[in-house]
Write a structure and sequence with these properties.
It comes from Companilactobacillus kimchii. There is one protein chain. Helix 1 runs antiparallel to helix 3. By secondary structure, this protein is of the alpha+beta class. It is built from 6 helices and 11 strands. It has one domain: Alpha-Beta Plaits.
């Protein structure tokens, strides 16, 4: 699907008590899978966790436009998830992302339950002149999203088929060539859905 204008793209960091982990996974999966199957304007959703206990969670969401987001926000599955999240989320951060590049597989994804997939979140401080380098910094991905929160702070989200593929490249070495300020988050994917062949024109 060719996107003629930049979609709504957001990053959420949610901290929960590990004792609520299984219920959090179940409600999140229902929200993502149902939205993917019923909402044409919901382009991508990915729920991940960083630590072994599952207390630190990163969620990425992309909608075609504001109307598509409002359809999702008013859906029964999101209302149920939001009500649950209010009870179990201990703290949250929300970042609105300005998408600069998107590349996804030619087949739609629906990942859930036990799976080998991994995500990598890169946060990089560098100037806009490095955009082309950032667009090409990742290899062997099945999906990649390059965005920023402001002209100097970049967020790159890469999806890999497995952890060994992600580990093949020395991403720290590549990042050190363009920035002295960066962070790397390796994330287990809990649930992910996206439409096929997304590309920003």
């Amino acid at each position: 699907m060719k996107l003629l204008k930049k979609p709504i793209f957001s990053l959420y960091k949610l901290n929960i008590d590990p004792k609520n982990r299984q219920a959090f996974l179940t409600e999140g999966m229902n929200n993502l899978i149902t939205s993917h199957r019923n909402e044409m304007g919901t382009l991508m959703m990915c729920a991940t966790h960083e630590d072994e206990a599952g207390s630190v969670n990163y969620i990425f969401e992309m909608y075609r436009d504001e109307a598509s987001y409002q359809i999702h926000a008013g859906s029964p599955q999101f209302q149920r998830y939001a009500e649950f999240a209010q009870k179990v989320v201990q703290s949250k951060e929300i970042h609105k992302l300005n998408l600069e590049m998107i590349q996804t597989n030619d087949q739609a994804l629906e990942i859930k339950g036990e799976n080998p997939y991994f995500a990598r979140l890169l946060e990089v401080t560098t100037d806009y002149s490095k955009l082309e380098t950032l667009k090409n910094i990742s290899r062997d991905t099945i999906a990649s999203f390059v965005s920023n929160t402001d002209p100097g702070h970049w967020v790159i989200i890469d999806i890999f088929q497995n952890k060994s593929t992600m580990k093949k490249e020395n991403i720290s070495q590549q990042l050190s060539k363009i920035s002295t300020e960066y962070s790397i988050h390796e994330l287990d994917i809990d649930t992910m859905v996206n439409q096929a062949s997304l590309k920003l024109e």
